[in-house]
Amino acid sequence: MRASLLQIDVKETESVDSRRRRVASLVREQAGVDLVVLPELWTTGAFAYESFGAEAETFEGPTFEAMAKAASDAGVWLHAGSIPERAADGTLYNTALVFSPSGDLAAAYRKIHRFGFDKGEAVLMGAGDELVTVRLPDTTVGVATCYDLRFPELFRGLVDAGAETLVVSAGWPERRRAHWTLLAQARAVENQSYVLACGTAGTHAGVPQAGHSIVVDPWGEVIAEAGSGEEILTVDFDPAKVGVTREQFPALKDRMLGLEAPRR
Hints:
Layout: E1 2-7, E2 9-10, H1 16-28, E3 35-37, H2 49-55, H3 62-74, E4 77-86, E5 92-99, E6 105-110, H4 121-124, E7 133-135, E8 140-145, H5 152-160, E9 165-169, H6 177-191, E10 194-198, E11 201-204, E12 207-208, E13 214-216, E14 222-225, E15 231-236, H7 240-248
Parallel strand pairs: 1-3, 2-11, 3-4, 8-9, 9-10
Antiparallel strand pairs: 1-15, 4-5, 5-6, 7-8, 10-13, 11-12, 13-14
Helix pairs in contact: 1-3
C-alpha cells in the first residue's frame, strides 16, 4: 500500500482560497497512491484562533467541495485533514474529513480532545464524542487529530473498533517536536499498528510548526520521516504486517484493565 503525507506550509501571506487551490492541485498529483493525508486545520492554521469563526464552513463548503473533487480526480482515498466546521446549531468543531476515490464522504471525525486548556481551541470549539474508523480495501483506518495523540485510551478504542492503521493529522508546534515523535512511536508500539502522522510546516499565528511528518510500523520503527519544510512524504507499507506482529507478539490478548474482570 502506498501513502502520501502532504506536509503543507501554512503561509500567512497566502490566502485561504489560494492555499485551497494549491493543495487540491497537490492532491491531484498523487494519482496512483492509495491514501493521501493532509494536516490539521491547514486552511487557517491550527493556532490562528481568530480565523476559526470567519473560515468555518459546512459540509457543503468550499474546502469540502474542493477536496471531494480532488479525491475523485486523483482516484485516491483522501484524509483531507481537518477544517473548522460550523454545525447546524452554530457550534464550531475541528472536523476531519475522509473521502473515497469516488469523491464521496466516507467519514467525518470531530476532534475529541481540544487543545488550549482555558483558551484557544478548547473554548472556541465543541468536543466530538465518537470514535471513527474507515474501512479501506487493504486496511481499517482509525482517525485522530493532533492533541488526541496524547491520550492512549482513544487509540486503544480505535483498535478495539478494528483499526490497523492509525492516521493523525496535526498542527504540532516545533517546541514540542520531541513529544510528537515519541508519542507517534508509542501509539504504534502499544497498539501494534501503523501510525501515519501528518503535520504542518511554516508558522501559525506566530507559532513555528514542527513538520517532521512520520510513518511508524507496528514494531515502533520509523520507516519514513519528513523534514521541517513543506514536503510530500510518500511511503510504501504492508498492512499485513499488523496481523503478523499481533500474532508473533500477542500482547493485546493480555489486556486486563478496561475489560471485564476474569472469573475465578
